[in-house]
Amino acid sequence: MGDEKYLGPLVVEGKLVDAERLKKESNYLRGGIAEDLNDGLTGGFNGDNFLLIRFHGMYQQDDRDIRAERAEQKLDARHAMMLRCRLPGGIMTPTQWLAIDKFAADNTIYGSIRLTNRQTFQFHGILKGNVKPAHQMLHEVGLDALATANDVNRNVLSSSNPIESELHQEAYEWAKKLSEHLLPQTRAYAEIWLDQEKVATTDVEPILGETYLPRKFKTTVVVPPHNDVDLHANDMNFIAIAENSKLIGFNLLVGGGLSIDHGNKATYARTATEFGYLPLEKILDVAAAVVTTQRDWGNRTDRKNAKTKYTLERVGPDVFKAEVERRAGITFEPTRPYALTTRGERFGWVKGIDNKWHLTLFIENGRILDYPGRLLKTGLAEIAKIHQGDFRLTANQNLIVAGVPESEKENIEQLAVLHSLMENVSHQRENSMACVAFPTCPLAMAEAERFLPEFVTRVEGILTQHGVGDEHIVLRVTGCPNGCGRALLAEIGLVGKAPGRYNLHLGGNRIGTRIPRMYRENINEEQILATLDELIGRWSQEREVDEGFGDFTIRAGVVKPVLDPTRDFWE
Ligand code: HEM
Ligand code: SF4
Question: Ligand 2: which atom is nearest the Cα of residue 437?
């Protein structure tokens, strides 16, 4: 990020990608979705609608475990939708929980609820006929799936540690306001899914524009010292700054992002750049200014170069920042001091400043389902029936039963214990995460969610063998280089390459402020474990006091740190 770099043009000229045509012709995201819904001949959405439904929170998928078999039988793939809710800050009520619990059981192929690592939930396996009822069910309980995928500002995250301070509540309120401020204004969602009346098209999109953003866009609100939202994976991040425990403003960090493309050296993971401090009352203007600058300057000729991180590098962070200042009518003050010291959860009961109790539950892979002998889904529904507070989804795919009065604590705990929701797991397991990948994700190259549990067991074995069984290493697996599992902010990151094969990245840190470097390419599980065995052995012997594994791999020269990803990410 040095000065001598060539700074590219503000706007990239050239042939627009097809996604741009599609957005433009969609009449503000309507396309032919409504007509397609009534086409019972196919289980999927066709033509442009296949991509347009993403703006309405859905991906069309098929079960990849049975894809080949169906093709052999000359059958179409069994199409079904994944539907993702909008849930700023990850907070929902017990009534909402019970509604989604029932819907998953009655109307989805897999019967599960998947908590995602962006503080929301998604259903997998909704057949076309059940899509509209899904949106209507969400609407009835005050939720929606608007703008949770595709080229818009997606679900807004906020640090989820519950009612630990008034700051958390305020951060949540800002996450909600940001989400609403940046939502698409089109009435398409209400017309198509909620049967609301069509009004003569008067749609305008003052912030997103008629062709929306060049690429997905992600926002967080962070309450230091917790970096549980993993801010560096996101385009726009507001770090709460307090004075005498009162929120007074935010530091803004722009241009984080993890997605890469195997072997494409023009792609890289990047941490976000500090722009400076802004007072509270400017947050919505500044947010709109960042989004519109990216809207106007983002590269619409190449989707692999379209995210804010690339725009920032092309025009230069200072140029981007000056444009945001101009559009928002603000001059950023220097970044105020802040410290991030943790990223994980504090499992079990924590008492808040409001004297209520909050129970953080570990949910492996965020997958809520009744397993033989472990009725997680039933257990959470039973809790929802008596719970007087709310549920908070964390950015690590876990769940907080928040706001429990003293008088109810024992009842909730009994239900949690009865349904195996409070089982003891190792710190290693608590700090491990995977994306969905097979069987539903069409982009998966290797297993992730199904691979992780057993793999963690083997890593636990290695830690124990080296006498560090109580320690943990932030470990993440992502089924392809798109990076949904945030492996490129882990201490050990596995990025899927092909079935059973991964690239191994090392050198991230515990708090998520450093990108790990590729250490071995395209290796299998046995090779990964052998490498880890050697390195964890060294760490256990040679580490300094409290030195994390990632920091050790950098200090010991196992990997070099990524300093300027535009130059050295692939070195
Ligand atoms: C080019 C980039 C990306 C593409 C095309 C992409 C696409 C997808 C698809 C198709 C799914 C659905 C998988 C399923 O549920 O079956 C998914 C899930 C998800 N993605 Fe991405 N993704 C990208 C990058 C990212 C990144 C960088 C993040 C976050 C840092 C992210 C966060 C998520 C989350 C939270 C889920 C839900 C499942 C989970 O928690 O693992 N995605 N993505
Ligand atoms: S990282 Fe790849 S495999 Fe995993 S959910 Fe995202 S797109 Fe699918």
Answer: 3
Ligand of minimum distance to the alpha carbon of 445: 2
Answer yes or no: same fold for 348-425 and 429-568: no
450 assigned to active site: no
Task: Say how many Å lie between the CA of residue 230 and the centre of ligand 1.
Answer: 15
Which pTM was predicted? 0.96
* Edge-to-edge strands, sheet with 517-524: 432-434, 475-478, 492-498, 501-506, 517-524
Q: What is the pLDDT of residue 353?
A: 84
**DSSP secondary-structure letter at 464?**
H
Which amino acid type is present at position 509? N
Residue 441 known to bind ligand: yes
DSSP structure string for 342-370: B-S---EEEE-TTS-EEEEE--GGGEE-E
Is 84 a known active-site residue? yes
Residue-level pLDDT at 178: 98
pLDDT digit string, tens, across residues 101-115: 999 999 999 999 999
- From 32-41, 108-117, 292-301, 427-436, the region with the lowest mean pLDDT: 32-41
Closest CA to 176 of 190, 156, 151: 156
Residue boundaries of the structural domains of the chain: 348-425, 429-568
**CATH (one of 1.10.720.60, 3.40.50.2300, 3.40.47.10, 3.30.413.10) for 429-568:** 3.30.413.10
Which residue CA neighbors atom 6 of ligand 2 most closely? Answer: 484
Is 258 touching ligand 1 by the criterion CB < 6 Å? Answer: yes
CATH fold label, 348-425? Sulfite Reductase Hemoprotein; domain 2 (3.90.480)
Q: What is the 3-state secondary structure (H, E, C) of 307-337?
A: CHHHHHHHHCHHHHHHHHHHHHCCCCECCCC
